[in-house]
Amino acid sequence: MTVELVCVGTEILMGNIVNTNAAYMSEKCAMLGLSMYYQSVVGDNPGRLRELLVQAKGRSDLVILCGGLGPTQDDLTKETAAEVMGRSLVEDARARQEIAAYFKDRRFTMTENNWKQAMVPEGSIVLYNPNGTAPGMIIEGEETTMILLPGPPNELIPMFEEQVYPYLRSRQPEVICSRMVKVCGVGESLAETRILDLIEGQTNPTIATYAKTGEVHIRISAKAAAEEEAYALIAPMEEELYRRFGDHIFTDQEQETLEESIAKLLIANRLTVTTAESCTGGLLAGRLVNVSGVSEVFKEGYITYSNEAKEKLLGVAKETLAQFGAVSPQTAEEMARGCAAAAGADIGIGITGVAGPDGGTEEKPVGLVYIGCCCRGRVMVEEFRFNGNRSKVRQSAVAYALRMLRDAVLAEVSQ
Amino acid sequence: MTVELVCVGTEILMGNIVNTNAAYMSEKCAMLGLSMYYQSVVGDNPGRLRELLVQAKGRSDLVILCGGLGPTQDDLTKETAAEVMGRSLVEDARARQEIAAYFKDRRFTMTENNWKQAMVPEGSIVLYNPNGTAPGMIIEGEETTMILLPGPPNELIPMFEEQVYPYLRSRQPEVICSRMVKVCGVGESLAETRILDLIEGQTNPTIATYAKTGEVHIRISAKAAAEEEAYALIAPMEEELYRRFGDHIFTDQEQETLEESIAKLLIANRLTVTTAESCTGGLLAGRLVNVSGVSEVFKEGYITYSNEAKEKLLGVAKETLAQFGAVSPQTAEEMARGCAAAAGADIGIGITGVAGPDGGTEEKPVGLVYIGCCCRGRVMVEEFRFNGNRSKVRQSAVAYALRMLRDAVLAEVSQ
Question: CA torsion B316→B322→B324→B325, rounded to 10°?
């Protein structure tokens, strides 16, 4: 069954709000195994909305609209959808009662225009709205069904969860299941080349890659009559990905982040970590502390932006800073050793670099970053040359520091 | 001039990512006085993309596409747009060089499929990409111009700011000038009610509010024949906003962030700052270090996630932690005092709270955060109860810590 989304609202076209409703409904539709080919946004303009709905009706089995159900003059979604579906509007008695009750309960003054919200397309399934005044509607046509939902997320989400999802589930013969395999330390195009044959050969399951800073996520999706069947289709493809990427795969859990997978490794192996950050100024520690419960293995960290701080807090030698400079492999190494010693941690990560836009030189350009990783006395230092603005350089540095941390833990564990 | 957005990416249709690019570009187009009537999202499917582009070409002066420019098999935006615009693809020498350099600089293994990204529609304006491998393109047709941009926001945003915006600006007959007044420490709905009369009465200039975490941005835009004229229309409205929000306005510069405005204040008044972070784990320091040159006033910071670290690095009293707990106004105060003393800084900020999802209690629920600010011995402590998930709670804590830091500097200066 094909579905498309039509979001109505000038505030989206003006960029005043981010269209989070679309992302929410897309994920739910994907979970239901609905094939979504189009999403559209139009303003509160009946002419353009009509044109779009006629087109949507012609190409999709299911059209989900959100927004424009309110009481005001320019809320015309319902009127336009009813017209395109060839229905007239009739008053729904219960909707009228609930609107009256909504205002009474809140002691709000009710204006006449609110009764407009009790009008529904004849023969439609009314989705009553405990969180607002505008009910939703399902208009079942011969080829196409239109579902109208209110725009505010606090009204739309409960209505979708409690009424729309079960309705769609009951209409859906197939389920789609998917698994997200997340890879770090391999560029997107390199990752893609490694699985090109799988991508080209894909039918069911399908696979798609998503590039993130320092990570590549690979989604395997399968359609089947039942969940078990779908996962049975996914399993061999996932095994194949593990064969090809091995240790570079840090999780196959949709919600698990790189820092979470690392925290698990650290906790499972009773290894503690600390950080000494110059150009990243706390962002690496910030990523680690994204993980609830990381306190078991991450007790403290240091932001040592000045040379003085590097000497005072980490014991980096004055001579090292003088001879090689703050941005050097030698300093990165001493930062890593120094923070591990200061915090009494098994692993210390030191990051120093030129994030820019100022401070770059011929010899040490903007984007040059050294990361040291000291694991129980053994130190690895890597040199990186990142592109982009200050923020991109710093984000990349954090992503690669996490990869080095993970590699260090894996190496330690494998001994 | 009418514009429409076409975002290409199955990951948007599957709900894997929120389409923040659309909100970003919509706001920029509104600033330019372009009329946006449609936004669409399609998957990586050349047939449906072609159909949509033909339609867009027929109804809009300008079509902005984003996504699908990468090196992989399913990146087909460029090929499809070129076909619809009747152009063939030719290799761009500089793009080829830059792609090679991108991999060489990073010592990444370059795979053959990357050369695909050096191919551009003949006669198009190439937008070189310092933050990635895929260049953008402007294809000027007789009626319609298509602009192709890469999907990753850290590539798209700088390319839009530095290359696309000036290009569009030069094509606009009327100048639209705007000024962004940024407010901190006032909630969005409160901010809106304070200026409701201005919003309702707006014609030229117009004003629009944008809610950010802990900030509200108010854009004043004016249309005129010349810049001076437009700014003359903006000036009285801006003065009115200053009358209504006073010190809560931290900048009227489009690009200036809260941390930049604070760094300026600190540098101008020779005040140094340091940070002691528990639940935010380095994010506050990370925000400060966003500012190039902040090292003058921010030398070091502490991440003290464990009680031991709070005692060892900040000198928080064991008794305080035992009697009041790590999440308490007393601990926040001692963290603020302690980090200022340890770093020898004029101002110390201490943050402690329950970010969740675990660790909440009846008495100390998830979202409870205490922030202490010690300025030359005088300490302010504020209690906050933030909503949302772990990441939202931590971001809010950082936003309000920055506001407290700013207030402390202003108070110090005004003495």
Answer: 80
Which chain A residues are Cβ-neighbours of B349 within 8 angstroms?
none
- Report the residue from A18, A41, A281 with minimal CB separation from B285: A281
Helix axis angle, A307-314 to A329-343, nearest 10°: 40
Token pair, residue B9, equals: 């990416």
pLDDT tens per residue across span B20-64: 999 999 989 988 889 899 999 999 899 999 999 999 999 999 999
The ipTM, to two decimals, is 0.77
Q: What is the mean pLDDT of residues B245-255?
A: 92
* Helices first, then strands: H and E counts in chain B: 16, 17
Beta strands in A282-403 (DSSP E): 298-304, 347-353, 368-375, 378-385
Beta carbons of B23 and A12 less than 8 Å apart: yes
Query: What DSSP string runs through A14-43?
Result: TTSS--HHHHHHHHHHHHTT-EEEEEEEE-
Query: Are A15 and B38 within 8 A, CB to CB?
Result: no
pLDDT in tens, A174-207: 877 889 999 998 877 788 889 989 988 888 998 8
Predicted TM-score (pTM) of the model is 0.78
Total Cβ atoms within 10 A of residue A299: 22
Q: Which residue type, as a one-letter code, is found at position A229?
A: E
Buried residues in A305-334 as b, exposed as e (16+ CB within 10 A)? bbbebbbbbbebeeebbeeeebbbbbbbbb
Q: Does B289 sit within 8 Å of A37, measured CB to CB?
A: no
Compute the distance between CA of residue A371 and CA of residue A277 in angstroms, rounded to an integer. 10
Task: Give the pLDDT confidence of A55-105 residue by residue, as tens digits.
Answer: 999 999 999 999 999 887 778 999 999 999 999 999 999 999 999 988 888
Q: Tokens for B138?
A: 């402007």
